[in-house]
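Morning F.,

Quick status update on the modeling queue. The single chain you submitted on Monday has been processed. Sequence for confirmation:
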Amino acid sequence: MISALGAGFLFGIGLWLSGMANPRKVLDFLDVTGNWDPSLLLVMGGAVIVTAIAFRPLLRKRPIDFKTSIDAPLVIGAALFGIGWGIGGYCPGPALTALSNLSADVLVFVAAMVAGGFLAKIAVPAGPGA
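Structure tokens below.
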């Protein structure tokens, strides 16, 4: 439990330092035709490198049942995630980190994110093995 707390704390610090908890920085990254800020490419590049190195041994240890088909819940969920990120400038991890600001926009975003999670559980109950 302590190591998970430490990892979460370190992740949160990384989000702050990279600017991912700042919705303006994220929105400027998404605005490729206007005031584009490419600096988050470094953050994403670092994440891809760490994932490529660290996840391969983890995947070999424990088999994971990957979904191979694209269905409506996947497409709808991805679209809602992208729309929420584009409108609010937050994705879930940075939004939780930005809660420390106690700003109204992040409070509304996190409340909507939690409500959406509960609605998804009600609308599409988990099947066997989920």
